[in-house]
Amino acid sequence: MIRIGHSTDVHRLEAGNRLIIGGVTIPHYKGSVGHSDGDCLLHTVCESLIGALSLGDLGKLFPDTSEEFRGINSSLLVQQVMKEVRQRGFRVVNIDSTIYLERPKLQQHISTMRENIAALLEIDVEYVSVKATTGEAVGIIGREEAIMTESVVLVTND
Ligand SMILES: [Zn+2]
Fold first, then answer.
1. Adjacency order of strands within the sheet including 146-156
2. What does the pLDDT look like over 94-146, one tens digit per residue?
3. Is the pTM of this model over 0.90?
4. 158 CA distance to ligand 1 centroid (A)?
5. At 98, is the secondary structure helix, strand, or coil?
């Protein structure tokens, strides 16, 4: 059987916060506000897997009221969800993600993000797609008020 999962996430951007995307710390004057490390991309990686297995959502598994998850490295959240994937006899086939961010340009960081996600999902990097686009200077993305990401993942138990 194959199952598909999808997720969208938005984080507010504020000066002085760290900008971590797909496990890569990107030098920038503002970063994402969040209970964890604010890694918007890893959150949708995580939550798309949660969706594929019908386990609820990221907030249900990792409540933002919990001290346990304050400032936590989002890679650890993905690892925890991958445990659930394996326990159910599933593995990841491929994942496709999009990052919506006005600035800075992410092109030079994409390959490291793909490698990080491939390692976390235990698949070859060729099955990990990460795309970046801007907000065309309009809306919350274009005004640099927020970062948004989307992920679609396919899992199988074959
Ligand atoms: Zn998030």
1. 30-32, 2-15, 146-156, 91-100, 128-133
2. 999 999 999 999 999 999 999 999 999 999 999 999 999 999 999 999 999 99
3. yes
4. 31
5. strand
Q: Name the DSSP letter for residue 53.
A: T
Could you report the per-residue pLDDT of 60-90, keeping only the tens digit for each?
888 888 888 888 899 999 999 999 999 999 9
CA dist 31 to 3, 14, 40, 114, Å? Answer: 33, 6, 11, 20
**Residues 124, 144: Cα–Cα separation, whole Å:** 33
State which residues have CB under 5 angstroms from ligand 1, the bound ion: 9, 43
Topology of domain 2-156, CATH: 60s Ribosomal Protein L30; Chain: A; (3.30.1330)
Q: How many CA atoms lie within 13 A of 88 on its CB side?
A: 19
